[in-house]
Specification:
- This protein is α/β, with parallel strands linked by helices and 338 residues long.
- The chain is 21% helix and 24% strand.
- The protein is globular, with a radius of gyration of 20 Å.
Length: 338
């Protein structure tokens, strides 16, 4: 049996190939039938060749998805056939096995990493799989694979954040919107959002109570000195400017966005001297084992329809989904794999 998969052939070249469904899998591997997947800006950077030299072309794509377990390796204890699962780049333990190598219908070898979700069937490392209780909101649960766990980890690793902290989020894409929605659910009320897309801001403002929205950095009042600035744009100019928004002597800049590999910024050392700190979303080893259930409980209270347009793309429309995502037509393209 052969199935469809979106394959990165070369820089800016994604095609649909037919891969042979595996009969045997290795220890640590689980075969999952994928229902839905999505894309994030890290995936765009990979497609555009901005993540550094790609040594594994051609290879499978995607690191956020949902599906159902079809086959498990012998003696697998964490999962059973029929389990509904979320697939994520965020691991729950050390990787147990390397990526899988598929054969396409012409006999050529196709590489894959420990997680890849733009396949109708995927052989996934056990460390990248999280069990779901049921199929409720199954389409929307693709968000549990990338944007939501990434920003949720900020709250997990910054226990000293106060509910009355003045927080400015730069970028209202998947990461920024995820942070705002979780913060709002957890009781943080003093939230400000910057995004250049005015239409997106209107939609977000209707969904989040009392959030301040701006579409230009310079429009944010000089009197605003934020306790926390969360940079989600992946834009180096915005990252440089973020230091002007954080308050001196205690302000914190949390860098979440992904940037083109090999690029750098100019950093005024006085930002550090005057007590502004910089940190990432992950400040300890990436392990989400004890955090996923907590995030899932919060997810169940969120209205996540705002992330998606009314259109659901078919896997064969992958290049249309990429184009619409790049142009800002959708915050997250939802891609049906079945």
């Amino acid at each position: 049996m052969y199935f469809k998969a979106a394959i990165l052939e070369d820089k800016n070249k994604v095609s649909i190939r037919y891969l042979k469904k595996p009969i045997k899998i290795n220890n640590g591997h689980v075969l999952v039938k994928i229902f839905y997947s999505s894309l994030c800006h890290t995936q765009l950077q990979e497609i555009e060749g901005k993540r550094g030299k790609d040594r594994f072309l051609p290879h499978c794509l995607g690191h956020e998805g949902v599906g159902q377990v079809e086959k498990i390796y012998k003696n697998c204890k964490k999962f059973k056939v029929g389990d509904f699962v979320c697939l994520s780049w965020v691991k729950s333990e050390n990787t147990k096995t390397g990526g899988f190598i598929y054969d396409d219908n012409s006999g050529k070898k196709i590489n894959s990493g420990p997680v890849h979700t733009l396949n109708q069937y995927s052989v996934i490392d056990e460390s990248r799989i999280y069990k779901l209780k049921d199929k409720k909101k199954i389409k929307n649960k693709v968000l549990l694979g990338c944007a939501l766990p990434t920003v949720f980890n900020i709250f997990m690793e910054n226990k000293n954040m106060k509910k009355n902290d003045k927080i400015c989020v730069l970028g209202g894409g998947g990461l920024g919107l995820s942070f705002i929605m979780i913060a709002n659910q957890l009781g943080y009320k003093n939230l400000t959002l910057l995004d250049k897309n005015k239409n997106k801001l209107k939609v977000i403002k209707k969904s989040i109570n009392k959030i301040k929205c701006y579409n230009d950095l310079k429009a944010i009042p000089n009197t605003e000195n934020f306790d926390i600035v969360v940079e989600c744009t992946g834009n180096l100019d915005v990252l440089e400017y973020s230091s002007l928004l954080a308050r001196k002597f205690g302000g914190k800049i949390i860098v979440v966005g992904n940037y083109t590999k090999g690029k750098s910024i100019n950093l005024d050392p006085w930002n550090i001297i005057e007590g502004i700190t910089y940190q990432g979303a992950w400040n300890s080893d990436i392990n989400f084992k004890n955090k996923f259930k907590k995030l899932l409980n919060i997810f169940n209270k969120l209205d996540t329809e705002i992330f998606f347009s009314k259109k659901i793309y078919n896997i064969s429309e992958i290049n249309k989904a990429i184009k619409d995502f790049k142009s800002g037509k959708v915050i997250r393209p939802l891609i049906r794999m079945t």
